[in-house]
Amino acid sequence: MEMNGLMGGFYKFSVVFTRLVLLNIIWLIFNFPIVYLVLSLVGSDFANLQTSGMLIGILTPFVFFPATSAMYGIARKWVMGEGDISIVRSFMTYYKENYKRSILGGIVFVLFWSGWIVNYLLFFEQQSTLFIVIFIVITAFFFTWNAYYFSYIVHFELKFIPSLKNSFILTVGNPFSTVGVALISGGIIYLSLSFTFILPLCIGSLSAYFTFLYFHKVIQKTMKVLEMMDQKLNLSQHEEAID
Fold this sequence. Notes:
Layout: H1 5-30, H2 32-40, H3 46-59, H4 64-79, H5 87-97, H6 99-122, H7 129-155, H8 160-173, H9 175-194, H10 199-242
Helix pairs in contact: 1-4, 1-10, 2-3, 4-5, 4-6, 4-7, 4-10, 6-7, 7-8, 7-9, 7-10, 9-10
C-alpha cells in the first residue's frame, strides 16, 4: 500500500535521509585513520601539525580515495534510479573494482594539492584581495576536477590516464556545471562546519550525490551532441555518395 500526502512525503524523505547517513557512516569508518588524525590536529602545536599533515598526505591515496570512489559508486546507483540496493555490499564492490585507479589518482591529486597549498602559503597569502579571490576560483575548479575524477572512474571502465584527462576536459568544457558543483559542495561543507552535528551525517554522501548528478547530466548532454554530429556526418557522406 503506497502512502500519499504528508505521510508519504515524510516516509520518502526518511528513506533517502537514512540511506545518505548510512553511506556517510560507512565512508567515515573506512576513513577512520584520517578522521582520527584530523581530530588530533585540534589544539596541536606546529610540530604536531606538520607530522599529522604528512601522515594524512601519505594515507590519503590509500585510504580516502578508494573509500570516496566507492561512495561515488553508490551515488551513481541512486542517480540512475537504483535506490533499492545493499549499500554495504555495493560499497565493497566499488571499493575493490576501482582500488587501483583510486590509488593512482590519489597520488596525483595529493601531490597536486600539496603543491597548490604550499603556493598559497608562500605567495597568495601575502597578496591583495583580488589574488585571493582568483585563488579561490581556481581552487573551486580543481576541486570539481577532483570530484569529476571520482565520478568518471565509477561510470566508465577506462584506464587511469584517460580517466584523469577526460575528467579534466569535462570540467573545462562545462563551466556552468563546474560552478554548480563547486557552489553546492562548498555550501554543504560550510553548513557542516557551522553546524558540526551535520558532519557525521551526510557531508560526504550528499556532496557525492549532487556531484554525480551534475556529472551525469553533462555526460548525457555530451552524448547527445556527439550523436547529432555523427548523424550530420553520416547524412553528409550519404549526400556525397548520391552526387
